[in-house]
Amino acid sequence: MSQTSHDRLLIIDFGSQVTQLIARRLRELNVYCEIHPYQNVTMDFVREMAPKAVIFSGGPDSVTREGSPRAPQEIFDYGVPILGICYGQQVMMEQLGGKVEGGKISGGGGTAEFGRAYVAPSVANLDFLDGWFADDSDREQVWMSHGDHVSKLAPGFEVYGTSPNAPYAITADVSRNFYAVQFHPEVHHTPNGAKLYENFVRLAGFSGDWTMGAYREQMIEKIREQVGDKQVICGLSGGVDSSVAAILIHEAIGDQLTCVFVDHGLLRKNEAEEVVAMFRDNYNIKLIHADESDLFLGELDGQSDPETKRKIIGKLFIDVFQKHADTIEGAEFLAQGTLYPDVIESVSFSGGPSVTIKSHHNVGGLPEKMGLKLVEPLRELFKDEVRALGRELGLPQSFIGRHPFPGPGLAIRCPGEITREKLEILREADAIYIDQIRKHGLYDEIWQAFVAILPVRTVGVMGDGRTYDYACALRAVTSVDGMTADYYPFSHEFLGETATRIINEVQGINRCTYDITSKPPGTIEWE
Ligand code: XMP
């Protein structure tokens, strides 16, 4: 649990797929919130966290099933506003003396409701619904996803909105500030849903004090307290997360921080110079630029199997990081750019409380191995909040908005054997491609764009001569999280102009293709 001094809101997670979206909507309202699985929420926990309001998430279970998830009964007497969503609504009704009827899925025979629905107001003047039903409309689009439904309200509750299949779509006990909705206001398909969260936190008295400026100050204090006069090591990749973490920690403890930037020789054109210039020269951060390209490229020599390449890089990275970290005397802490989505414990119904904590990229098992404690100043933030913090700390937008770049670098964009010659050609082609994308104002619309150099030479004709050079593939995808992706629909003019530039300007490439594979079935990277 965080020790934040801000107004806090507790989200009790009953296992909905979209619980994280509730947190997003609240953070957009400058409200600090934490998601905790229902199994962990005891009244001692609640009292310690001292939330100003509580939200019950949706969930896949049925409250009609014996042993299904509940909130601690005393939470209803704790005296703070509560909002129940879908399963959360049903839990509230059940625990407060109402009744829930099973639908098709839980075997009750009632009507299930999935997808778009329309809610109409049944009683006017509920503060919670202020500005929600548009003036010129008597109904509002919502997203439903429920098998069961409330069949009898708990004492004290009244109905404020109904849909054809959910007679209790919006209910409230105004005297206790309890609100309960059958639909999901947090999802995109409830277009005006954010308004309900806005009204709820207003009614709960939140001041909207969760700002990046306040977070920065609070974190600086916290880092100073945690680290004292000890030394901290930070593995810098040049990506947004580790960069923002490093700058924030540097602001807190100055020269007690040393960054280690492992240069495996698989970076893009000018990347190493830019990272060094940014951190050492601009921010004056102590930085070890570990130029280990000979080591990495030597070990990769002659290797063409994608998994073998990845394993070699992963192992060397850890060895090299550790070697350089060992030179920093008295280091007791390792800084990592772990984000909130990486640490949320999610509710699993397949075997008790499961924990989906991703081990963080390349330095995963290092803290235990090296006996280091962790400093993770971004643990409470979502990705776009990290970007906002980066802006707050003065990082240029060109750095903050950079496309993701994989740990193994250009190695996985160079199918077949990796040679210095091919890497050089690839760097040049990639730089031109990105330059083209920026010039056409497309960079921010694209999740990731890069060139892959193919392990094949093709015949061409330039001037009056024959060429026999490498072919390359351009890749550009749109995505939300990198899990699924679609190719970016460049215009033919853009593709033609870019191919011409690459072939004319890069010695060693005489053919360009555009990769139009989506993910799945492809992956974003070529290896
Ligand atoms: P794929 O190719 O699996 O990539 O569709 C999805 C996203 O993950 C990035 N990626 C990596 N990032 N270490 C990383 O830090 C890796 O080993 C790695 N492999 C892929 C990829 O660039 C894309 O954004």
Question: What do these coordinates show?
Answer:
The chain is of the alpha/beta class and 527 residues long. The longest helix is centred in the middle third of the chain and has 20 residues, at 306-325. Strand 9 and strand 10 (166-173) form a beta hairpin. The chain folds into three domains: 7-203, Rossmann fold (3-Layer(aba) Sandwich); 212-400, HUPs (Rossmann fold), CATH 3.40.50.620; 419-514, 2-Layer Sandwich (GMP Synthetase, Chain A, domain 3). The protein is globular, with a radius of gyration of 27 Å. Mean pLDDT is 90; it is low at 348-363. A nine-stranded mixed beta sheet has the order 2-1-3-4-11-10-9-6-7, sandwiched between helices. It is built from 15 helices and 20 strands. Bound molecules: xanthosine-5'-monophosphate (XMP). Xanthosine-5'-monophosphate (XMP) binds at residues 361, 404, 406-408, 448, 482, 519, 523-525.
Report the portion of residues in β strands.
15-25%
Strand order of the largest sheet: 2-1-3-4-11-10-9-6-7
Q: Would you identify the regions where 5 or more consecutive residues have pLDDT less than 50?
A: 348-363
SS-based class: alpha/beta
Stated plainly, the CATH topology of the largest domain is called: Rossmann fold
CATH architecture of the largest domain: 3-Layer(aba) Sandwich
The CATH superfamily label of the largest domain reads: Class I glutamine amidotransferase (GATase) domain
Total separate domains: 3
Distance between the termini: 39 Å
Total strand count, please?
20
> Outline, from the CA principal axes?
globular
Distinct small molecules bound, one entry per kind: xanthosine-5'-monophosphate
Number of H- or I-type helical stretches:
15
Helix content: 25-40%
Largest sheet: 9 strands, mixed
